[in-house]
Fold:
Amino acid sequence: MSVSRSQCKSTPKKSCTKTPKASVAPSRPRVAPHIAVLPKSGIRDFFDLVSTMKEVISLGIGEPDFTAPWKIREAVIYSLQRGFTHYTSNLGDIKLRRSICRYFEERFGGKYSPETECIVTVGVSEGLDLAARALLEPGDEVLYHEPCYVSYNPTIRMAHGVPVPVLTTAKHDFVVQVEDLEKAVTPKTKLLMLNYPNNPTGAGMTWEDKKKVAEFAIKHDLLVLSDEIYDELSYIPRSPSIATIPGMRERTIVFNGFSKAFAMTGFRIAYAVGPHDLIDAMMKIHQYTMLCAPGLSQFGAIEALDNSADEREAMREEYEQRRNVIVKGFNDLGLKCFMPRGAFYVFPCIKSTGMTSIEFATKLLQEEHVAVIPGSAFGESGEGFVRCAYATAMDEIQEALVRIRKFLVKHKLLK
Amino acid sequence: MAKIASTAALKERILALLKRNARISAQEIADRLNLTAAKANELIAQLESDGVIRGYTALVNTDLESETRAIIEVQIQPERDAGFDNIAERICKFDEVVSAFLVSGRYDLHLEVVGKSLQDVARFVSSKLSTQPGVKSCATLFLLKKYKESGIELHKEEGYERLKITM
Structure:
């Protein structure tokens, strides 16, 4: 179904468009205050600096360095040849939704109806936005663990929710602790957002960790948004989704997608599965804003789920090996970091240098032309750390480590 | 990956790395697989002595060289006890033959042969190969251009430059 202007007729109470008034009161802000206060990014200056520099080795790129497997690209080309250039169902092509639900059950353990419990979105970020807007009323509080992906806080605020960050620490390998969640929860808390394996820390939840958090969510009757985009890039034995724990299915929306596991970032394609009433509410917003996710990307996504397991596993294995190299590298340099359980990030502690994370990243960039992301970009609790992505070729990782060594020696932080 | 990978699984990973890049250092193999360099060296030595690794070679884009290569489809009369093996092994002893496979289908041996020139290869086929006892026929297909070898595409593609920073 697509929405057209003619449908305005079915809502007679309010007219569709208002004739603009000749003048607007000067006191009225042009930009909505809750948008005006959103930061573009805490480290805009740093980004600008990076973009002006040449010959930079960047460990700051949060996307696979692999090109999407040829099979997937070829499936998209073939869909173009056959003229599949139209809208799909708002929820996404039913063939894709069937593949998603089959794949999800096989890989993550939960059973969902392709007809009513699955929606194809334009990236997980769109999915999270849909869920926040569909579920939150003004003033509802949302718990999320920090450091976290940069969109969480703004997504909550754009939906008029109140973001309540719960700090995670290196002491617990950045896994959120129920004691800390208990301190933050109030009667106004409606949602809990989870992202494991985690960007930026590489933290991951074991099955035991998931059970503890599930118990907390059930106890406080919270809805849970579980962003599992990095789950396929796990380096510990994978466990089923938190949504499969008894009492969780009815309160959990799981988000996953194709960008990371299948190196399809530019396709902008992802999905959410969850109980029908929540997915249906998300679909209302999606149909009026996106109509549907790009059709071409949907055909590529079917090929990814149905036929690309070997390619996915080969990429995962390569990330795992790079992780081993970069973690050893940082620890050898005295910048302590734990062994990430998933995703493609390491989060070394740079407190021993006496620099803030912004200072460290800026000096390293200016002096040695290596880009890393200051941990503070992911929330205050990221201060004292930097995020380094190993979704970068091994020779670049090795060269970056050589340059970081040089940098530390120069600043007399290493002999 | 399990914390303690079995020796067989480790060897498989080492082989995969060496097949991709035979010049990878033992240290890098060790770092990638969470081993000591000594352990990596020991496993490589085992793979060599067990005959799993038979050698290390460079993958050369032969387009750029002044040599001639041909695929030769050879039909063979098998021998009563040895089948194709004796004849195939004898043929493999010629330096001109760089690879040889027994295949199913309308011929038996699939050879890749190299020579300095077209005449050189033709001479080898007519005087050495087709005259071998047991060889019934040879069809010579000269290679004009090679696009992919050992999993590596030989033509260069313009890479896509990613954004320098993405969250």
